[in-house]
Amino acid sequence: MTYGADRVYKKVEVIGISAKGIEDAVQAAIGKAHRSLEKISWFEIQDIRGHVDQDGKVDEYQVVIKVSFELK
Q1: What is the pLDDT of residue 4?
Q2: Strand ranges (DSSP E) for the chain?
Q3: Which of 72, 54, 65, 55 is nearest to 17 (CA)?
Q4: 11 close to 58: Cβ distance less than 8 angstroms
Q5: What would the pLDDT profile of 5-51 be if each residue is shown by its tens digit?
Q6: How many CA atoms lie within 13 A of 7 on its CB side?
Q7: What is residue 1's three-state secondary structure?
Q8: Closest Cα to residue 68, out of 38, 46, 48?
Q9: Taking a C-beta distance cutoff of 8 angstroms, is the pair 29, 47 a contact?
């Protein structure tokens, strides 16, 4: 198939979580989606949030993304 030929995609929402940071949370979401879905093509960040511990420090990053994959 030539790039630019007719294609159809579906988007699903995925939430990645990491204690390390936003980029790791995105990678966690993409990595899991890649193992579950075929032909992932791109993603969109929808929301970024996190959790603050009792000491007032960020202890978790949560990233909501939409991942698209090509339908067969």
Answers
A1: 62
A2: 9-18, 40-52, 58-70
A3: 65
A4: no
A5: 788 999 999 999 999 999 999 999 999 999 999 989 999 999 999 99
A6: 14
A7: coil
A8: 38
A9: no
As a whole number of Å, the CA-based R_g of the chain is 15
pTM for the predicted model, two decimal places: 0.84
pLDDT at residue number 62: 98
**72 has a pLDDT exceeding 90:** no
* Domain architecture of the chain: domains with CATH: 9-70 (3.30.1660.10)
Distance of CA 68 to the CA centre of its chain: 10
**Which tokens sit at 42?**
């791109």
Query: Hey, what are 41's tokens?
Result: 């093509």
